[in-house]
Amino acid sequence: MQCAHCGTEVAPGQQFCGACGAAVTDPGAATVVVATAEKHEDPLLTQLRQDLAGEYDVEKELGRGGMAVVYRATEIELHRTVALKVLPPGMGGGTMAERFKREARMAAALDHQNIIPVYRVGQAAGTYFFAMKFVEGRAVDAIIEQQGALPVPVVLAILRGSTSALAFGHQRGIVHRDIKGANILIDRDGRVLVSDFGIARATEEKTLTASGSVMGTPHFMSPEQCSGAKVGPQSDQYSLGVLAFQMLTGSVPFDADSLMPILQHHFFTPPPDIREVRPGVPEPLLGVVYQALAKDAAQRWASTRDMLTAIEAIPFPDAERREADEMLRKLAVGTPIPEVRTGSLPPLADTRVAGLSAPTSGPTVTAAKAAPPRPAPKPKSKVPVVVGVLVAMGVLGGGGTLLVVQRQQAARAVAQAAADSAHRADSLRLDSIRLAAQRPPAPAAESTAVAPADTTPRPGRQPPARVARPERAAAQRPAAPAQTEPQVVPAPPAPTPQPAAPAATGFIRLRTVPSDATIFVDGRQLGSGSLYDFTLPAGTRRIRITSPGCETMEFLVTIEAGGTANLRTRTLTCQ
Q1: Distance in Å from the first CA to the final CA of the chain
Q2: Does domain 148-206+218-337 fall into CATH 3.40.50.1000?
């Protein structure tokens, strides 16, 4: 036997080469291969392959969202490709597992030609999953990103299929809550499919939704969804209206550099006029889009079936329908179609002028001679910050999914305060004008009162002599005789009261486990589950966190003026 390293003859039985010292192996011996994970392989993928071995051949990850990961797999027995939506280990306990199983049951109950079907709901070694149909195609948001604005026949075809799917779900008490381009797919046959009912919830189920959570994607969220209010079918109608606007113009109606301005646009800003950037869109289609984008949910359709009826009433000849199907098949495989040219949307108004920070004092009446006008400083909007919002971003299917966790009462207070302060700003301006007009002129002080001279010329009367200035008159008068009585000196005028300096404040960030724990600051209840950049007076504050069945946590924290005390996550000890 020769050494495989240097070729030197090695006597039988030796384990190492006498020339180079390399280990010697018998070429006739059995070879044992130890299976190891790939260098950068996801541990969840490795665990999933072990747990589902024999049932599914799990291939690769397709995407992940706020509560689940989606993998491509092959069902071994039926030889069909599926998409596995999996709840990661460690999240499968308590409410999260119940929510996941409930959502899987709801999705499996929706048997509709425009809804991606669910084949199976299961659990393997503590891992919850459900298998869905794997769609070979593209999402609408990816199509818009490549193509821009879409032809009107394509828009009508997508709206018809999407609205039909939503109407089917709404009739069964299920609201999607996250309609956007990433959750509407076009398969290779040109069929429109609505996916990811993963954050949908049945309207009749209340036990798992009492936490007051707000879920959705900011650019597509309805005003009531932004405020944390209870949502219904009209919320999905609004989101579909945003998508229709995006398909017609290539852009969403409301956009900004950060989250809060986007939400404020949903509350206050009218949607731009599509006709200014794309002439020729049929008026019935424009009517559907703008009714769906109504700020008040009551101004949309009473049912999504009525919305579908309005869309189906838009003229859609058979020739255009066949053309739309052909274009959808091309778009589903990445083949471009003729470009639709549109103009640029006008810039939106600055949401900070909406007066979200209510004035702390009444209307101010200016003096008769005002100073030259100066541009007013832009007020800082603090209402959304004061409430405290916990934001967690996840990506699934190419779209950003926002998870905002907070109490519904607090979120509704944001919307109500914003609307009230916007109206209050206008009222205060009118009150200021009225008060300035109605207030009589202030009486002059007795020590400085001077009767105005009558300078009107009259016949036979000489004009009065010009009144000399007080300092000159004093110089021309003879010296007064010495007074024997003490001179009474008038009291100086009272100093003008200065406004009190604003109290120094800072911010606090805090998240609790469990997520429904109640947070008290200095004995005052401020939130449940989280406080995000909540404004507090600077100084030492006492924090108390309570939850039924858990030990109360209490501690002190120092809030610095202008600073942020980031307390991160505080976990209670529960039974």
Answers
A1: 67
A2: no
- Tokens 């069909």 correspond to 80
Q: In whole angstroms, what is the distance from residue 295 CA to residue 284 CA?
A: 19
Nearest to 163 by CA among 75, 99, 97, 236: 236
Counting DSSP H helices and E strands in the chain, the numbers are 14, 20
User: Which one is the CATH code of 504-575: 3.40.50.2300, 3.40.140.10, 2.60.40.10, 3.40.50.720?
Assistant: 2.60.40.10
Secondary structure, 3-state, 375-430:
CCCCCCCCHHHHHCCEEEEEEECCEEEEEEECCHHHHHHHHHHHHHHHHHHHHHHH
User: What amino acid occupies position 162?
Assistant: S
Residue among 192, 283, 281, 205 nearest 240 (CA): 192
Task: Please tell me the distance from the alpha carbon of residue 266 to that of residue 225, in angstroms, as a whole number.
Answer: 10
Q: What sign has the CA pseudo-torsion 473, 475, 481, 487?
A: positive
Q: What are phi and psi of 238, to 5 degrees?
A: -65, -45
Q: What is the rounded average pLDDT of the residues 553-568?
A: 88
For residue range 211-233, what is the model confidence (pLDDT) as tens digits? Answer: 444 556 889 999 998 888 888 99
Q: Which residues contact 35 (CB under 8 A, 6 or more apart)?
A: none
Output the pTM of the full model: 0.57
For the record, the structure tokens of 179 come out as: 């309609």
Token pair belonging to 337 = 């179609």
Rounded to the nearest angstrom, the gap between the alpha carbon of residue 485 and the centroid of all alpha carbons in its chain is: 79
Active site amino acids: 178
Classify 35-134 by CATH class. Answer: alpha beta
